[in-house]
Specification:
Shape: globular
Order of helices and strands: HHEEHHHHHHHHHHHHHHHHHHHEEEE
Number of helices: 21
Strand order of the largest sheet: 3-4-5-6
Length: 543
């Protein structure tokens, strides 16, 4: 754990942030019915307030994990309660604590049955999601990873729509299947990486090419289901359509990011050779997701399904940036994970708000809202423009960095990805043209009233973030920068991705970087004997 930096304050910040929602969930069963909503909101706001100092106390120039805590949990095998954050996980933690009180507010009137249990389930869900982003022990990570399934299953299966059981079971089975492979990969790493579950130590261990290849695909299935990447995406539209609004927000804004986080935290640092070897496949699947998700969104008549398929497309940009294997692409992917959480979460909130009035998610039943609901229409247009990446909004920054990183990796891939931006403009502008500015739908006009104070309190913080990140992205980028540089430099990912084969003295060699190695080729080098497919490590210590 030498790379862990423990902040001098000594206060267990991360433990408090992670488990405060769980304590609040227990507290809800001891308060009166009339106080359930206010108690849940107070707990969520307290957790947000507790997490905000982390952003100010975080040392942007330091490498490694900060605010770390480590306590022995099980002696044999050695399993520890170890938590910490870096520039990759801290923004995701803050996003989760920021969205939790908004989910409580949007459920204020929408949930009428089993309200106490609903609010408790949401708070338990928050603890599980936060735990995933801070865990530094693989077993602890897996506990939080699996614990997240139960409250999400309940949110969909108990408080969802007419087909909620089908959607909940489908979500559970898809994710559980990926989790089984993840657990097998964790056990293999334990035995091959020095009999430890310490994520940082396992990230520094060396593994053979064949082992990396097998582990890569085990990780891939586990994380691709969660993203979800094509072709593992089919559970997502069903889950979104049937989930209550708060469930859709958690699902789109946080749960999908766990898969991308897994690629960044585990696949890239632990399996660098396999990552480079399979990057073309990952880029290809990302491009398919971008175009397929956008094309499917064009055909949707249900607002939730449209936004769900747009998530498939936007998360394709995230995985594309990750596997560009350069600083621009990875920072763009991280930025887009946050942006997608803000913007797509806001769009689902907008759908939930209008559903409370018209009791329909169909575009045909929600025409012409600009006249009776001008504040609502304004918010919808802002989030729509953000989602399509308009300059000056948050999503533009992330997509721009991803396209730059992809262009540095391959110009053709960047060109294909840019088509997704055009398609996003098509389906989003077509949606907003009908919903906000189309002819009024007379049958629901009597139920339409504009945003009240509670709904404005939900959407205004998100609008502020849309423009703040759009015009001033540096505060967020500087948090990520050191951790991303460390990720790339430690594993030479960028050099490996840019490697070229050359024939020297009758042998194929793999040359890294812009300049050839000097006499004897002592630099970062893989020697390939006679055939490019037969790889042996001649100088593994320099890689």
């Amino acid at each position: 754990m030498s790379d862990i930096i423990i902040h001098s304050s000594g206060f267990p910040w991360l433990t408090a942030v992670v488990f405060l929602p769980l304590a609040g969930a227990v507290l809800l069963f001891f308060v009166k019915d009339a106080a359930v909503r206010w108690t849940a909101l107070a707990v969520a706001l307290a957790d947000l307030a507790l997490s905000l100092p982390l952003a100010f106390l975080y040392d942007r120039s330091a490498t490694g994990m900060q605010f770390a805590e480590r306590v022995s949990w099980i002696v044999s095998p050695p399993i520890n309660y170890a938590v910490g954050v870096d520039g990759i996980s801290l923004p995701l933690l803050l996003l989760t604590t920021f969205l939790t009180p908004l989910c409580v507010l949007v459920s204020w009137r929408a949930i009428e049955t089993r309200l106490r249990e609903f609010m408790a389930t949401m708070l338990v869900m928050a603890t599980a999601m936060l735990g995933v982003f801070v865990a530094l022990d693989f077993i602890l990570f897996y506990v939080f990873w699996e614990a997240m399934l139960i409250p999400m299953y309940l949110l969909i299966g108990v408080w969802g729509g007419p087909n909620r059981l089908y959607a909940a079971v489908k979500f559970f089975l898809y994710t559980l299947a990926g989790s089984v492979l993840l657990f097998i990969a964790i056990l293999v790493l334990f035995f091959q990486g020095g009999h430890t579950f310490d994520i940082l130590l396992l990230s520094k261990a060396e593994y053979s090419q064949s082992l990396q290849n097998w582990l890569f695909w085990a990780f891939f299935i586990a994380f691709a289901v969660k993203v979800p990447m094509f072709p593992f995406h089919t559970w997502l539209p069903d889950a979104h359509v049937e989930a209550p609004t708060a469930g859709s927000v958690f699902l789109a804004s946080v749960l999908l990011k766990m898969g991308a986080y897994g690629f960044l935290r585990f696949t890239l640092p632990m399996l660098p050779d396999a990552t480079v070897a399979f990057t073309p496949i990952m880029v290809g699947l990302s491009l398919i997701a971008i175009l397929y998700g956008a094309y499917m969104a064009l055909a949707q008549a249900d607002l939730k399904k449209l936004i769900a398929y747009s998530s498939v497309s936007h998360m394709g940009f995230v995985t594309l940036g990750i596997f560009a294997l350069n600083a621009q692409g990875i920072e763009g992917a991280l930025m887009q994970m946050i942006n997608h959480g803000i913007t797509t979460g806001a769009l689902f909130l907008c759908v939930g708000i209008i559903y409370e009035r018209t009791h329909s998610r169909m575009i045909a039943d929600n025409f012409g809202l600009a006249n009776p609901m001008p504040r609502y229409a304004t918010c919808l247009v802002i989030f729509t423009l953000s989602s399509l990446g308009l300059p000056g909004t948050n999503s533009f920054v992330g997509e721009f960095l991803i396209l730059i990183g992809t262009f540095l990796w391959n110009k053709v891939a960047a060109t294909v990805a840019s088509l997704g931006v055009i398609l996003a403009a098509a389906y989003l502008l077509w949606m907003v043209q009908r919903v906000a500015f189309g002819p009024p739908a007379g049958h629901s006009a009597s139920r339409l009233f504009d945003l009240d104070w509670r709904e404005m309190a939900i959407l205004m913080p998100l609008i502020i973030l849309v423009f703040w990140i759009g015009f001033f992205p540096n505060p967020l980028l500087t948090v990520m920068h050191t951790s991303v540089d460390q990720l790339i430099e430690e594993e030479d990912l960028e050099d490996r991705a840019a490697a070229r084969k050359e024939m020297v003295d009758g042998q194929w060699i793999m040359v890294y970087g812009e300049d050839k190695p000097q006499e004897g080729y002592p630099g970062s080098l893989l020697t390939i004997n006679h055939e490019p497919s037969a790889i042996s490590h001649d100088d593994a210590s320099s890689i």
